[in-house]
Amino acid sequence: VMQCSASLDVLFLLDGSYSIGKGSFERSKRFAGKLCDALDIHPDRVRVGMIQFSSTPHLEFSLDSYLTRQEVKERIKRTLFRGGSTETGRALKYILRKGFPGGRNSSVPEVLIVISDGKSQGSTEMPAMQVKQRHITVFAVGIKFPRWEELHVLASEPPEQHLLFAGDADDAANGLYSALTGSVCSTTAPGCKVESHPCERRTLETVKELAGNYVCWKGSEQPSAVQTSLCPFIRWKRVMVKYPSRCFRTVCPDPCDPQPCQNGGTCVPEGLDRYHCLCLVGYGGDFHCAAKLSPECGVDLLFLLDSSAGVTLEGFLRYKAFLKRFLQAVMGQDSPMNVGVAQYDDDVRIAIGLGQHKDTLSLMKSIDALNFSGGRTLTGRALQYIAEHGFRSTPVFADMQDDLPRVVVLLTDSKSQDSVAEALQYMKDRNLFLVGVGSSFMRAELTKVTGNPQQTVVYSDPQDLFNRIPELQRRICSVDNAEGCQAQSLDLAFAVDASSGVGLENFLRLRHFVRSSCLHFSINRDVTQIALVVYGSKARTAFALATHTSNSAVLQAIDQAPFLGGSASAGSALMHVYGDIMTVQKGARPGVNKVVVLLTSGAGLEDAAAPAQQLRHNGISVFVVVVGDAQRDTLLRVAGSPSYLVHISSYEDLQYYQGFIMERICEEAKSPVNLCKPNPCMNQGVCILGPGSYHCECHGWEGPHCESRVLQGDSPRSPVLPLHSHVQWSPRGLQHFSRAFQLTKRH
Predict the structure, then answer these.
(1) Is residue 336's pLDDT more than 80?
(2) 89, 238, 433, 665: least CB-packed within 10 angstroms?
(3) Which of 432, 441, 317 is nearest to 367 (CA)?
């Protein structure tokens, strides 16, 4: 993030000899590109050129050839290894003779960066001294296993600041910037400073090593005799040698220090003085991860924590942390919620009375004080006790509203050791709404405890528990909104995978899911319209939005939807929905929210991202419900956001997610509508928005939606009409439009 920004000519001198080798030459190129990141390359500021040398120097590109950092780095990548002997002195003489090719003739400071192993086959001392006498600053960068003595000769003074090691690319780039800052570059950013630190210069050296003494034969004075003796055996060995030194670097204050992100958010630096926060689920209400969820419902809410031996101390502490984070996310200063907390094992204890704390801080302290007790898991007894005593009116609760819905959230991870049936009925008799939270292996148990799979929240692993905060909030608030989508206008299309990858048995499960989902809606022309598309390699319309006008007709038509087999192409299905379902011609209504639910096995999604984006661009929400294994990044590209993605492990579990999916669809049905998305005008008509209405600007067509061709000449049907027809349209005309459309279609 730090760049030397000044008028400066920089010339790289790359060793391309055989002693370097092709592999190390490639590393030299990458390192040169890394150094370019520390330079503000621009025609008026830093210019860069390159010479490769071996037996002879070769100009790769001059300083005036490439004038942006990207161009320079791309050209460095294309440089080819030449090979030859290491004639560093000859390369320096070339620079003394030719200067910096394409440079600005010493009118700006000149910097030479030599990247070599320092194993020259000729003397470099004299030409190196002459280069430095011309006021050229020389940086010597060691590559591979360099000969540091020669690089010391090449580098400018002081050598600690001008000797770099390519093996530590980031440190070397920082060292280059730090050295230039002290001479030619602009001063460091505010708060930054150049400091020295101990470092090492490493290389391989060949040393003699005594391998041992061996018997050897020597002559003697007697011509026919030999003499034995012990002789030392010496061998040569290459060892890594480290030379302690001092290096320099620029250190800047971390914009994330001290931690500016609240509620467990992660700070990500952006440059020297900016940052952004990655927020946990349920946070992100502002830049610093303030709580963003709002309960949007007034309830008396009592949490019942399992503190038995079955849940373990670790599980109890996890639920305490979850409870704190949930309440921090949903409770504001004027929260309409009254919150209480109880815990149970053999006995039940109401630790925090309902509405006892009105501020979050004191509530958090009380939750922290809860202790694990151990004991048996008597969930049935605990629920019955809470039903009798958890919501009793006392003077403490004198300011509470008596007409608020009452919700109990059970947090457990162990099966009940007593019967829960009687307690469940007892709670229903007192109009208490029960929500169960537990791990995935507790799904069946929670369904038995709550009596309804739609009143359960399950998580796959400890971290996933915290991702369930928005889902739990919706479950709690659904008690205050039991009608769901019954009275909400909506155009809804299901696209169901009917390929061989799903199979007939699982296709029937998907079809049953669509069927039971339709029971949540009031189906007629004025409220909810539903369409169904099945797809394999091609998509087929089972029925369109305007085909059926009652729940019974839709349910009967779903049962007739065929299994297709073959490969799957979700992209063709979404394109089919866009072009043949969500159009005015096929019964889609202007001014009504539109939702597509894609039910898929995860196969054939490769071509679905672009059609899904096209639907979203035209104001149509896309939910992706995937069953089984699939690449999450592919799913997110299609869904566009995690909040529009539901990933289910098996077809048997599909039923448990129906309530959650319906809630999300209902939320979309209540969102603001752009009357011109998707375009309600037919035949290339242009939709023009007005205050609370729209009109279609037609070309060669007429009618509210440009549905009738303008006839010219002596036709008795209608007189010649002007080229542009303007018809005002508002949502109040939806009923009349829908019926008129049906009459027109029949006619």
Answers:
(1) no
(2) 238
(3) 317
Q: Please give the pLDDT value at position 400.
A: 43
Residues in the chain: 747
Q: Which residue has the tokens 């020389």?
A: 138
Domain ranges, residue 461 = 300-392+402-478
Mean pLDDT of 60-74: 92
3-state per-residue secondary structure call for 267-311: EEEECCCEEEEECCCCECCCCCCCECCCCCCCCEEEEEEECCHHH
What would the pLDDT profile of 469-525 be if each residue is shown by its tens digit? 888 888 887 765 544 565 678 999 999 999 999 999 999 999 999 998 887 787 888
Higher pLDDT, 593 or 526: 593
Whether residues 352 and 495 fall in one domain: no
The predicted structure's pLDDT at residue 192:
78
| 398-417 as b/e: b if 16+ CB within 10 A | eeeeeebbbbbbbbbbbebe
Phi/psi of residue 327, each to 5°? -70, -35
| HEC readout, 540-567 | EEEECCCCCCCHHHHHHHHCCCCCCCCC
For residues 450 and 364, membership in a common domain is answered with yes
Q: Is residue 468 part of a domain?
A: yes
CATH number at 528 reads 3.40.50.410
Assigned token pair, 575: 């394109």
Would residue 729 count as lying in a domain? Answer: no
Residue that the structure tokens 């029925």 belong to? 543
Q: Which residue intervals of 37-145 are DSSP H helices?
A: 69-77, 88-98, 125-133
* Domain assignment of residue 743, yes or no: no
Among 311, 310, 327, 309, CA closest to 368: 327
pLDDT at 486: 57
Give which of 58, 57, 59, 61 is closest to 74, Cα–Cα. 61
What is the pLDDT averaged over residues 226-233?
79
Res. 723: pLDDT tops 50: no
* Separation CA 217–CA 200 (nearest Å): 46
Name the band, by pLDDT with cuts 50, 70 and 90, for residue 720: very low
Phi then psi dihedrals of residue 700, to 5 deg:
80, 5
Q: For residue 673, name the pLDDT band (cuts at 50, 70, 90).
A: confident
Tell me: do 425 and 498 sit in the same domain.
no
270 and 376 together in one domain: no
- CATH code of residue 260: 2.10.25.10
Higher pLDDT, 498 or 656: 498
Instruction: State whether 610 and 693 are in the same domain.
Output: no
Is position 484 within any domain? no
Looking only at the bridges linking them, the beta strands covering 456-459 and 432-439 are parallel
Strands 110-116 and 8-15, bridge-based pairing: parallel
Sequence-separated (6 or more) residues with CB below 8 Å from residue 498: 507, 534, 535, 536, 561, 562, 563, 564, 565
